[in-house]
Design goal:
CATH architecture: Alpha-Beta Horseshoe
Oligomer: single chain
Largest sheet: 8 strands, mixed
CATH class: Alpha Beta
Shape: globular
Strand content: 15-25%
Distance between the termini: 31 Å
Number of helices: 10
Structural class: alpha/beta
Strand order of the largest sheet: 1-4-5-6-7-8-9-10
Order of helices and strands: EEEHEHEHHEHHEHEHHEEH
Length: 296
Amino acid sequence: MIPIRYVEPVFRPPSEAESLILPVTDGCSWNHCTFCEMYTAAQKTFRARDEAEVLESIRLTGQRYGDQVRRVFLADGDALVLPTRRLLSILQAIRTHMPAVRRISSYCLPRNLRKKSQAEIDELAAAGLKMVYVGAESGDGQVLAAVKKGETFETTREALDKLGAAGITRSVMILNGLGGKIYSSQHAENSARLANATQPEYLATLVVSFPTGEQRFRADFPEWEPLAQPELFGEMEQFLSRLELKRTVFRSDHASNWLILKGTLGADKERLLNQVRQAIASPGQAPLRPAWARGL
């Protein structure tokens, strides 16, 4: 057995399916986003893991599997909330005890990078932090405020720029439909503006969904009305049409998405737009994911 203590639920990005999940914190340090069901207070209270426990887990895992582990994902919701000194200690231990590791990654809340200088982020990159997943959700200030994200266009852009300057690969996620009908257009417009301003290496969209119900979300955003399938496609068309990306891998293939889209922007922009427009014009002929397969 892997000598790591896990506290359920444990989440990781789809692309970390083959990674060792190494918890360095439990839960999410912000935990106010009303759309998020990953780390609610009822499920998991935020705390930083004891440093000695994390380092011992790394040592024991390396002892047993050190030559087999190629990727490590630092869990839970925002490992970069930890002080830079502690993060550097963890990264050093991974290098020492798991020499076969080629990529270390984590989730990141933009707010946590406000406390770190560019020099600190450069240090983390030099120590082995290769990739960070940023749930931007939206580039629109009104949408971000309505869902209690605790971020703005500028705070998210600043964080992404710091990561980019350090050479850390950035994977940015936008939530299709998050603004509902009232903010759909500005949500699409400003989310594209954020991506254009920061040029992330990876960009993904998911469709906002509430498997356990919408009550918590609607309590703070009562004017929110969900987008019907054609409206989701319309918002996606507006978002894609406004993107001016040089070389960003784009994915819209999460289980929540009705229409699977994959490509590189800008090379595949017109092809992706044509796929969305065909789905709008002839939904019955589009290769849509059936409702039962959305896993929600």
